[in-house]
Write a structure and sequence with these properties.
- By secondary structure, the chain is α+β, with helices and mostly antiparallel strands.
- 31% of the residues lie in helices and 28% in strands.
- It contains 16 helices and 35 strands.
- The strands form ten sheets. A six-stranded mixed beta sheet has the order 3-2-1-4-11-12. Strands 13, 14, 15, 20 and 23 form a five-stranded mixed beta sheet that branches. Strands 6-5-9-10 form a four-stranded parallel beta sheet, with helices on both faces.
- It starts with a strand and ends with a strand.
Length: 683
């Protein structure tokens, strides 16, 4: 029997999910991450998972991986020295940007320093016009001279972005041939390959970021393919993109910027699968790990997609799952500010030295220390007791803060939780209320190692009545990798009035994109039965600066009539902005095509054996603080021993290998047929 293994590397833990597709038999495993070299934890964890569960690695058919290498490289500014070649007169665009302050109410905070110093922002005589016409031919001799300067420098990567190359890439294609001749050993990124679409600054920034990441991510992908290949042989290795789809290792090495939100995107894909499975198709996710918390809105089991993101302060113009991130994790450090008030995060103790209770050298109080001290985490340790937790060290760390605040240790610990919960509530409002959605119409789905510890408190703050806790919340990001399809996005910029006169242009561009997508699907050996090609259009009122992405259905079908396209836009505009008008003309900016297909084996989904008996799962009880005033004696359940249909009334702590879940006294918890916990919270 073959196996599929998914690996998600987080800031604190690296998660493994191994499944036998034919039977659905699954195993989960966690080990501490190795920030100095993430591949160490991946390779060690593969071996440990195989040894623990008796999985023959030579029978692994597929290995899917969510990676934080690109994100960490950007945050730590450890990318390659880049030379930028752009249209003459436009080299300072990278620094000028949009002239928007990074923080509206702070005059002191500057934009991050450009990743390319001005000396190495090189401009080249050439010009493509605003309709794709050649205004000035590319000066080949000047380009070869620039290549000579780069060859004699310390630059390890080259980014090329010419004006209006999204309309006509001829000059970038011409430059690519010359640069390949002159600089064969240098990493190269060209905007017409990275993301050929309207908005010059964002396209330029995305291309530079891609070049900046190529050497570091490329080296990691080489190590991954070599080391993992030695273990899993001919298994297909896939990498998760920010859009939630998978891509090959080679594509990830060439376009590393597409992996910038790899891990959180995998979590959203896993959450979508659980939402379908449970029947609660409208959910807001809360992925709380050791360093941060990621939230996303999923409607009808589909996560929202965004095309404009900031990563480490730099704009990225690529399709990605619309995720809002805050510095709120189990390792977030609590501290007293100059104003004498308690703060939590965004600084994190991470995997090393970790929270004080980990006994790895950390001495500062963290969210995990507060959870342990208040009875929310098992004193016996994490990972089924294999990772010891020291409640005395947690108390000592919190007591130091309590002395500064002149509060009891219990009140201080509960205050830490209240503050981190408030931070996450703000993040949830950003993806719901601020986008025109009422969170009370959604269920909250927590996952990550710490999500299920805080979910019910966060839900109550937002008036949400239902919390859906997946069967394996601690490794859902890894599990989501096996639900993700191989995927690629194609885009064509039009910038035309949306009317009957331009309908033929839309049809022609749609057909052209469809042809590219079909070829890509064929080259990647995606089974025809699993192929899907969706078409969307970026529309706006004429004069608006931002677009809304409107679905046009499957690319294989004819386009909907313009009346229907208008109707869909008005409806989306009403949700996003609270109004719409049918009197103003519309403009189509981009056509987008999303091609995908399932390349991983279909995984069986076994159901739990029905049982209403909860006594065999109970492991005693413990005082847990659900308010800062007093503790409540709370039963503890080993979750794997609960059957489908089991009902728990009132407070409970559910323990399992990968996570711990807390539900409050005013709740009712039901185990569904797939092992998910459905928590109903009363007023």
């Amino acid at each position: 029997m073959s196996w599929c293994i998914a690996v998600d590397i987080g800031g604190t833990f690296t998660d493994f999910y191994a499944v036998e597709p034919a039977t659905g038999r699954a195993h989960v495993f966690k080990r501490p991450s190795t920030p100095h070299d993430p591949s160490e934890a991946l390779i060690s964890g593969l071996k440990e998972t195989a040894e623990t569960y008796g999985i023959p690695l030579d029978q692994v058919e597929a290995l899917a991986h969510g990676t934080t290498v690109a994100t960490n490289t950007l945050i730590q500014r450890k990318g390659a020295p880049v030379a930028l070649i752009t249209t003459e007169g436009f080299r300072d665009l990278l620094e000028i940007g949009r002239q928007i302050r990074p923080h509206v109410y702070s005059l002191q905070i500057d934009q991050p320093e450009p990743l390319v110093p001005r000396k190495w922002r090189l401009d080249l005589p050439e010009r493509i016009g605003g309709k794709g016409e050649i205004v000035r031919p590319l000066d080949e001799q000047a380009l070869r001279q620039l290549c000579q300067e780069i060859r004699e420098s310390d630059r390890e990567a080259v980014a090329v972005c010419f004006l209006f190359s999204f309309f006509n890439p001829a000059h970038e294609e011409q430059a690519a041939k010359i640069i390949e001749e002159e600089l064969p050993d240098t990493s190269k990124s060209f905007s017409y390959q990275v993301q050929p679409e309207f908005r010059e600054y964002e396209r330029l920034s995305t291309t530079v970021l891609n070049a900046y990441l190529q050497p570091a991510v490329g080296d990691y992908m080489d190590r991954l393919q070599t080391k993992a290949g030695e273990l899993v042989g001919s298994a297909r290795i896939s990498i998760c993109q920010s859009s939630g789809g998978l891509m090959s290792v080679e594509e990830a090495a060439g376009f590393p910027i597409r992996t910038a939100l790899s891990g959180p995107a995998a979590g959203a894909m896993g959450a979508s699968a659980v939402a379908k499975q449970s029947g609660l198709r409208d959910v807001i996710t809360l992925d709380m790990g050791g360093t941060s918390a990621d939230v996303a809105l999923i409607q009808d089991a589909q996560p929202a997609i965004s095309y404009n993101r900031d990563v480490a302060g730099f704009p990225v113009r690529l399709p990605s799952i619309d995720i809002n991130t805050v510095g709120a994790g189990g390792g977030s450090i609590a501290w007293v500010g100059p104003d004498g008030l308690l703060k939590v995060g965004p600084q994190s103790a991470g995997a090393v030295p970790g929270p004080a209770c980990y006994s790895k050298g950390g001495v500062e109080a963290t969210v995990s220390d507060a959870n342990l001290f208040l009875g929310r985490l098992p004193v016996g340790g994490l990972l089924g007791g294999s990772m010891a937790m020291d409640v005395d060290k947690a108390r000592t760390a919190i007591a130091a803060l309590a002395d500064q605040l002149d509060l009891s240790v219990e009140r201080t610990a509960f205050g830490i939780l209240e503050i981190v919960n408030a931070n996450m509530v703000r993040a949830l409002r950003a993806v719901s209320v601020e986008r025109g959605y009422d969170p009370r119409n959604f269920a909250l789905m927590p996952f990550g190692g710490a999500g299920a510890l805080h979910a019910t408190d966060v839900a109550k703050e937002l008036g949400m009545k239902t919390v859906l806790i997946p069967k394996h919340p601690g490794i859902l990001c890894a599990q989501g990798l096996l639900d993700a399809p191989l995927a690629k996005d194609f885009v064509s910029t039009l910038r035309l009035p949306l009317n009957e006169d331009n309908l033929s242009v839309m049809v022609e561009r749609s057909a052209s994109l469809h042809s590219l997508a079909v070829k890509w699907l064929s080259n990647n050996e995606v089974p025809e039965a699993s192929q899907s090609i969706g078409l969307t259009a970026d529309l706006r009122y004429k004069g608006q600066n931002f677009e809304l992405s409107i679905s046009l259905g499957n690319a294989e079908e004819s386009l909907p009539d313009l009346t229907e396209v208008h109707r869909r836009f008005y409806q989306a505009h009403e949700v996003a902005y609270g109004y719409s008008t049918e009197d103003d003309p519309l403009e189509i900016v981009n056509l987008r095509l999303h091609a995908k297909g399932q390349i991983l084996p279909q995984i069986a989904t076994p159901k739990l054996e029905a049982s209403s008996d909860i006594t065999k799962a109970q492991r005693g009880s413990i005082p847990i603080w659900f308010s800062h005033e007093r503790s409540t004696d709370t039963p503890i359940y080993w979750r794997d021993d609960l059957g489908a249909g089991a009902v728990i009334e009132g407070a409970a702590r559910f323990e399992q290998l990968d996570s711990t879940s807390i539900v409050p006294p005013n709740s009712r918890t039901t185990v569904d047929p797939f092992g998910n916990l459905i928590v109903e919270i009363s007023s």
